[in-house]
Amino acid sequence: MTANGTAAREGTEPALVRLLSPEGTRVPHDEYSIDLTPEQLRGLYRDMVLTRRFDGEAVSLQRQGEMGLWVSALGQEAAQIGSGRAARDTDYIFPSYREHGVAWCRGVDPLTLMGMFRGVNHGGWDPNTNNFHLYTIVIGPVTLHATGYAMGVAKDGADMAVLSYFGDGGSSQGDVSEALNFAAVNNAPIVFICQNNGWAISTPIEKQTRVPIYQRAAGFGFPGVRVDGNDVLAMMAVTRAALEHARGGNGPFLIEALTYRMAPHATSDDPTRYRFAEEEAEWRLKDPIARLRAYLVNEAWADDAYLAAIEAEADALAKRVRDGLRSMPDPEPTAFFDHVYAEQHPLVDEERAEFTRYLAGFEEGH
Ligand SMILES: Cc1ncc(C[n+]2csc(CCOP(=O)(O)OP(=O)(O)O)c2C)c(N)n1
Ligand SMILES: [Mg+2]
């Protein structure tokens, strides 16, 4: 095993589904293919660049004290944009908490996401407007919510499927195994996407599983495929096929997207304490954005002017979120008591009153 456990992460067979090499050349595949126009490819590039930009801006803003926390999706843009753009608007998506690229595909304003991490909203978007559920920080249960939703979809006979995201760490939660099994026995129209980014905070994938995660699907009785999660084309092709499989009444599908969390787990984390710089350097060579850019440039579908225009758009987005976040009004300090229960509750009232007295203690004259 290498220092970073690459052998365990990459398994033995079958090979990853890959349609675009790290050098940016097309790779043929027997089962999965995709044929996009240059305009569609440029669209995926734009999505990834803009996602990376607002994500990076959010890290800086957190460092400047504008947010309590931020969880970066750096390096996972292809896994998220490829799968997010594969879904139809009518499909329903359950993210965990790092799916900023998927949120972008669903039209959730990055500022709304950031507002949540600033503590000024409770998620901030209406899940039913975007068919994009609120973020769930608790690891695991969201796969059960998604499975239940998909069972409802099947009962309604609706022409849609559900996408449910979890992480390599999440795969160790009992809830996820229960969801996979429940989805299977109920033939629910759901596609599970495990973004295996190598780490669950400081716990490496070798401490989560002895077999590649996608192989678990076979034990539950449905297909599972491992995809190069840094290849936006492969992610889009496999997710499209998986959603068609689910919509067609064939039950669940598991996609393991092999990717890498290039950033710390969250802004409160220091990965130099538990992983090697060599590992990060190795994955930097597989950067999902550089790969698509190389393909676009090689094919002469993107020139310097186009790339500069996308950078300018990214700069404008960064400025918009920076200005927007800084101008968000602070919430009332007692606001977090407001939605504990739908109705007034004596214990919450007592706690609110106590907290109000505590705050008053800081006022002048006390
Ligand atoms: C049930 C539960 N246990 C522990 C945590 C604390 N926690 C937050 S993120 C995380 C790691 C999750 O890793 P993974 O599923 O691989 O997702 P990633 O952060 O890599 O996207 C843990 C243990 C939690 N949020 N929920
Ligand atoms: Mg992980």
Topology:
Blueprint: H1 6-10, H2 38-63, H3 77-86, E1 92-94, H4 100-105, H5 110-118, H6 127-130, H7 141-156, E2 162-167, H8 174-185, E3 190-196, E4 199-200, E5 203-204, H9 216-220, E6 224-228, H10 232-247, E7 253-258, H11 277-284, H12 288-298, H13 304-326, H14 346-360
Parallel strand pairs: 1-2, 2-3, 3-7, 6-7
Antiparallel strand pairs: 4-5
Could you please describe the fold and organization of this structure?
With 366 residues, this protein is an alpha/beta fold. The chain folds into two domains: 3-331, Thiamin diphosphate (ThDP)-binding fold, Pyr/PP domains (Rossmann fold, 3-Layer(aba) Sandwich), CATH 3.40.50.970; 332-366. It has helices at residues 6-10, 38-63, 77-86, 100-105, 110-118, 127-130, 141-156, 174-185, 216-220, 232-247, 277-284, 288-298, 304-326, 346-360, and strands spanning 92-94, 162-167, 190-196, 199-200, 203-204, 224-228, 253-258. The chain has a five-stranded parallel beta sheet with strand order 1-2-3-7-6, sandwiched between helices. A two-stranded antiparallel ribbon has the order 4-5. Helix 2 packs parallel to helix 13. The model is unreliable at 1-8 (pLDDT under 50). It binds thiamine diphosphate and magnesium ion.
Key features of this structure:
366 residues, Rossmann fold, single chain, binds magnesium ion, 8% strand, two-stranded antiparallel sheet, binds thiamine diphosphate, 2 domains, five-stranded parallel beta sheet, 14 helices, alpha/beta, disordered N terminus, 7 strands, globular
CATH topology of the largest domain: Rossmann fold
How many helical stretches? 14
The CATH class of the largest domain is identified as Alpha Beta
Give the CA-CA distance, first to last residue: 62 Å
Instruction: Report the strand count.
Output: 7
Over the alpha carbons, how many angstroms does the gyration radius reach? Answer: 21 Å
User: Helices and strands: which structural class?
Assistant: alpha/beta
Uncertain stretches = 1-8
